[in-house]
């Protein structure tokens, strides 16, 4: 049962193989097993690759089965169309396009499995890339908000400096009227005279202006701080909205690019392994000597080819004979007087009918 299934996978003619030796059947069963397991590997590889795209198990399995059947059909076609010839050079020339196709298939199959085999290393590369993207994303978003926040900070600092300047002026007026009262400056008269009162009034007026300035600037600073908080909240919101996009940066193309950043040696040898698996049926058929199956298949093809050639030649001879007979028959008919008179009579009747029909048409148009 298993041998018949693998022979079916090899694309060989089971009817011819039944009349061959057990060794011949075993050879083609081995070729069919290689084709089958290559399709299984293709199914696994494509399912994993598609899972990284769709992120859905059943969808990946469904399309993986379709891809595996496609690879199975291609490999079966490649193996079954290679015919043994008497010249190895002609066989190699015949197999060259199929080998190129096998190389392409091996590359397509091996790449998703490489992604799975080196998944941990690829995840590490992707993590580093995500961190770099996160920093770059924050810097790009910050470029939109940093100038605005810096302008608000400058305005807040100006308001605070304005208060500090006013405080310095008020403190200076305080020192002035205290010194006047102590007699250490100004008129240098001890006591609270008219000059002291004048300077005290200036200080009190400046102190009142300072309090009003503090209240007004405090209100302005509060509003500017609220704007800063709003801008910072908007900045954090944009960062949080864009972060899932960066976190989802692990699709198929991203993983392939990350795989390219790893050392090429292990990946290359995995590709060689699948290339050997994919081309092994072709190489086996090229290197194997012409067996009983090949001879019988060639005999059947020769029988069909000869039969078709005979049919074509027979039809060509029938056509040539029929052409000669038709020429002779119609040549003799053309010389008979009775046929001539009959044809002339019919032609005259046709011309009369055409003339009458033309006359009726012209009358209707008047």
TrEMBL record:
User: Which InterPro entries did the record assign?
Assistant: DUF4407 (IPR025519)
Coiled-coil stretches noted in the UniProt entry, renumbered to this chain: 196-230
Q: Where are the transmembrane segments?
A: 28-51, 57-74, 268-288
**Assigned keywords, A-Z:** Coiled coil, Membrane, Transmembrane, Transmembrane helix
Question: Superkingdom of the source?
Answer: Bacteria
Name of the protein in question = DUF4407 domain-containing protein
Q: Which organism is it from?
A: Cerina litoralis
């Amino acid at each position: 049962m298993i041998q018949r299934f693998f022979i079916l996978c090899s694309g060989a003619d089971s009817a011819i193989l039944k009349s061959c030796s057990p060794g011949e059947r075993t050879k083609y069963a081995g070729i069919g097993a290689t084709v089958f397991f290559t399709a299984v590997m293709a199914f696994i590889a494509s399912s994993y690759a598609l899972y990284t795209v769709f992120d859905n198990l059943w969808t990946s399995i469904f399309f993986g089965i379709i891809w595996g059947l496609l690879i199975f059909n291609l490999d079966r076609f490649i193996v079954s169309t290679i015919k043994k010839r008497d010249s190895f050079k002609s066989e190699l020339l015949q197999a060259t396009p199929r080998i190129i196709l096998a190389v392409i298939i091996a590359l397509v199959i091996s790449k998703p499995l490489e992604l799975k085999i080196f998944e941990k290393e690829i995840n590490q590369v992707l993590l580093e890339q995500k961190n770099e993207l996160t920093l770059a994303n924050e810097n790009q978003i910050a470029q939109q908000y940093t100038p605005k926040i810096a302008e608000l900070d400058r305005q807040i600092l100006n308001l605070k400096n304005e208060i500090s300047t006013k405080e310095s002026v008020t403190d200076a007026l305080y020192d002035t009227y205290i010194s006047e009262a102590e007699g250490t400056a100004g008129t240098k008269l001890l006591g609270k005279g008219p000059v002291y009162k004048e300077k005290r009034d200036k200080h009190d007026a400046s102190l009142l202006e300072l309090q009003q300035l503090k209240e007004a600037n405090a209100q302005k600073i509060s509003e500017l701080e609220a704007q800063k908080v709003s801008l910072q909240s908007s900045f954090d919101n944009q960062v949080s909205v864009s972060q899932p996009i960066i976190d989802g940066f692990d699709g198929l193309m991203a993983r392939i690019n990350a795989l390219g950043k790893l050392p090429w040696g292990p990946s290359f040898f995995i590709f060689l392994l699948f290339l050997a698996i994919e081309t092994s049926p072709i190489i086996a058929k090229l290197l194997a000597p012409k067996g009983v199956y090949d001879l019988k298949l060639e005999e059947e093809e020769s029988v069909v080819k000869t039969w078709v050639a005979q049919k074509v030649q027979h039809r060509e001879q029938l056509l040539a004979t029929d052409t000669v007979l038709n020429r002779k028959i119609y040549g003799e008919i053309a010389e008979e007087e009775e046929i001539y008179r009959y044809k002339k009579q019919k032609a005259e009747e046709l011309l009369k009918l055409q003339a009458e029909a033309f006359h009726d048409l012209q009358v209707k148009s008047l």
